[in-house]
Amino acid sequence: MKLISKAITILSLTLAISPFSFATEQCNNILDFEAKKLRSSQTVNFCEQYKNKVLLVVNTASECGFTPQFKELEAMYKKYKDQGLEIVGFPSDSFFQEHDDEKETADVCYINYGVTFTMLSPSKVRGSDANAFYKQLEAQADRSVKWNFFKYLIDKNGKVVDSWNSREKPLGGELEKAVVAQLAK
């Protein structure tokens, strides 16, 4: 009887602990984030969506001089998505160049530029008001967002490997070379 009691206790403890350790193994700290998609009630769970993917994160603004980069970001996404690249856009008014109306932001992204990669609801990306994901990004990269269309590259293990300023175009330069190198790993 004592043996059965011990076995039940061990099994109970194993079952109680397993989900927590499994969840911890599943998600890198930086990917432990969830946000609402742009102009949608759906949310994106970064752990589920981007685990084992190369992730390019870009803070966007639909009224910025760099807004035309949406075209190249979309081209990059189409070119590399089947190899494991994901791109996430974080619309933000942190630099006062984003529409106040989420519908207008969505129109710029989806209608004007035909964006198909994930775009999230607007949020802050700098300072003490920055969303939790950007706070972790900046801490890992040891480099803060300087302007709209600042880019961070996260490897398949959920680690920030590099970042680029707004002037770095998505295609034909160092950013694309870094994406290709990460996809090859």
From TrEMBL:
Q: Write out the GO MF terms.
A: peroxidase activity
Domain (Thioredoxin) ranges? 11-185
Q: What UniProt keywords apply to this chain's record, in alphabetical order?
A: Oxidoreductase, Peroxidase, Signal
Query: At the top level of its lineage, which domain of life is listed?
Result: Bacteria
Task: Tell me which residues this entry annotates as catalytic.
Answer: 64
Q: Which InterPro entries match?
A: Glutathione_peroxidase, GPX_AS, Thioredoxin-like_sf, Thioredoxin_domain
Signal sequence segment:
1-23
Q: Which GO BP annotation is one of this protein's?
A: cellular response to oxidative stress
Task: Note whether Phosphoprotein occurs among the keywords.
Answer: no
Q: Does the keyword Oxidoreductase apply?
A: yes
Say which family it is in.
Belongs to the glutathione peroxidase family.
Query: Under what name is this protein listed?
Result: Glutathione peroxidase
Source organism phylogeny: Bacteria, Pseudomonadati, Pseudomonadota, Gammaproteobacteria, Alteromonadales
